[in-house]
């Protein structure tokens, strides 16, 4: 089982989602009957991607999916939730406190506003944007060479191929479409796992431009 002895904590998270998650507009009322499998378990199964004690940033965390689910399943992870809306960050902070998750930090702001303030080797997101746009937001948060784990649907491969050129410009090194939870989920969770080595700022076509005047030629 993904949650093991922390299953009661995951069930408490589901109850919070069904209550204040709905009243705060983070979860639609029609989603309540399938919160466990379609949302919480669906997110938690990607925990197998991350190495021990990894730092992970969840961009556009919203209802804490996948970030909170990952933090419950993997207490060894250092999870950072990034969300721009005050109402949502207030809810996330209260939920993290109620669940007693000491491995979660909530950040209010857009991903592009937090560059230089928070960074990690791993960034994840669920249902935020097309992969090229998502990568433009997420790659600057990577701590050097790192991996974006984007939760996607059945068209993940097609989206990857369509946006590959833009991804390459961002420093894409490797890309894979993976399935998670095939044994426990009726429909496996699909992720695009993209490894990047971003170019230094100011670098273009392999050349880093230096500020200031060019050096004088040697006589």
Helix content: 25-40%
Biggest β-sheet strands, sense, barrel: 7 strands, mixed
Averaging pLDDT over every residue, what do you get? 91
Number of strands: 9
Give the N-to-C terminal Cα separation: 72 Å
Largest sheet strand order: 3-2-1-4-5-7-6
The CATH homologous superfamily corresponds to Vaccinia Virus protein VP39
The CATH topology label is: Rossmann fold
Tally of discrete structural domains: 1
| Helix and strand sequence | HHEHEHEEHEHEEEE
- The amount of beta strand, in percent, is 25-35%
Summed up, the helix count is 6
Topology summary:
Blueprint: H1 7-23, H2 35-44, E1 55-59, H3 67-73, E2 78-83, H4 86-99, E3 104-108, E4 120-126, H5 131-138, E5 142-152, H6 156-169, E6 172-180, E7 189-196, E8 203-204, E9 207-208
Parallel strand pairs: 1-2, 1-4, 2-3, 4-5
Antiparallel strand pairs: 5-7, 6-7, 8-9
Walk me through this protein's architecture.
With 219 residues, the chain is of the alpha/beta class. The protein has a single domain, classed as Vaccinia Virus protein VP39 (Rossmann fold, 3-Layer(aba) Sandwich), CATH 3.40.50. 32% of the residues lie in helices and 25% in strands. The chain has helices spanning 7-23, 35-44, 67-73, 86-99, 131-138, 156-169, and strands at 55-59, 78-83, 104-108, 120-126, 142-152, 172-180, 189-196, 203-204, 207-208. It has a 7-stranded mixed beta sheet, with helices on both faces. It has a two-stranded antiparallel ribbon with strand order 8-9. It is globular and about 45 Å long. The termini are far apart. Mean pLDDT is 91; it is low at 203-219.
């Amino acid at each position: 089982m993904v949650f093991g002895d922390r299953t009661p904590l995951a069930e408490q998270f589901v109850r919070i989602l069904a209550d204040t998650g709905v009243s705060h507009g983070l979860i639609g009322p029609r989603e309540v009957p399938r919160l466990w499998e379609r949302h919480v378990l669906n997110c938690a199964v990607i925990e197998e991607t991350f190495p021990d004690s990894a730092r992970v940033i969840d961009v556009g965390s919203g209802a804490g999916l996948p970030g909170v689910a990952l933090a419950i399943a993997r207490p060894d992870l250092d999870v950072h939730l990034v969300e721009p809306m005050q109402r949502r960050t207030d809810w996330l902070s209260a939920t993290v406190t109620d669940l007693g998750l000491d491995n979660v930090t909530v950040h209010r702001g857009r991903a592009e506003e937090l560059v230089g303030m928070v960074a990690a080797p791993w960034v994840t997101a669920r249902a935020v944007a097309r992969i090229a746009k998502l990568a433009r937001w997420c790659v600057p948060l990577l701590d050097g060479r790192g991996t974006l784990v984007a939760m996607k649907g059945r068209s993940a491969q097609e989206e990857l191929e369509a946006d590959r050129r833009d991804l390459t410009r961002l420093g894409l090194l490797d890309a894979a479409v993976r399935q998670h939870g095939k044994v426990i989920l009726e429909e496996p969770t699909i992720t695009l796992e993209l490894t990047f080595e971003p170019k230094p700022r100011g670098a273009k076509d392999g050349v880093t431009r230096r500020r200031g005047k060019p050096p004088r030629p040697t006589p």
